[in-house]
Specification:
about 80% helix, about 0% strand, mainly alpha, Four Helix Bundle (Hemerythrin (Met), subunit A)
Length: about 140
């Protein structure tokens, strides 16, 4: 049971690290460029002023999209008793791919690399859901 929780906790840690990195980048940029914080009070206002440091923010938003389905699946696996070693291995693969996606997105941000890793992580997640659904429905 705990083996499926570990990748979920690692995903939370990844989200926390990206959140910290985003604030570090934004606050540093605001300070260095003497930007009035009120001038970036909304996402629309910040889009222009903070465009140079938007990748971590964009990545943080990504971490609240498909990963939500990962968290839900982990809970359902625990509740139904289906949290097998196979699911744990797939969960680690998903988390590793999401970590690589975050690294690419927050650093050099090459779209083809980022998309390839994103697609691979999505396939892993959808496969996990398909196997889970098939087990429940059989």
């Amino acid at each position: 049971m705990t083996t499926i929780i570990q990748p979920a906790l690692t995903m939370v840690a990844l989200t926390f690290m990206v959140w910290c990195y985003m604030y570090f980048k934004r606050l540093s940029f605001i300070r260095v460029h003497s930007i009035d914080p009120q001038s970036v009070a909304t996402r629309a206002l910040g889009a222009k002023s903070l465009a140079a440091v938007s990748a971590p923010s964009d990545n943080l938003m990504n971490l609240f999209e498909l990963p939500v389905l990962f968290y839900v699946l982990v809970v359902l696996l625990l509740v139904t008793g289906e949290a097998s070693q196979g699911f744990a291995t797939a969960a680690w693969a998903y988390v590793a791919l999401r970590a690589l996606h975050s690294f690419i997105h927050c650093t050099y941000n090459q779209v083809l690399h980022r998309f390839t890793v994103y697609a691979a992580s999505s396939i892993v997640l959808w496969a996990m859901w398909a196997v889970f659904a098939a087990r429940l429905l059989s």
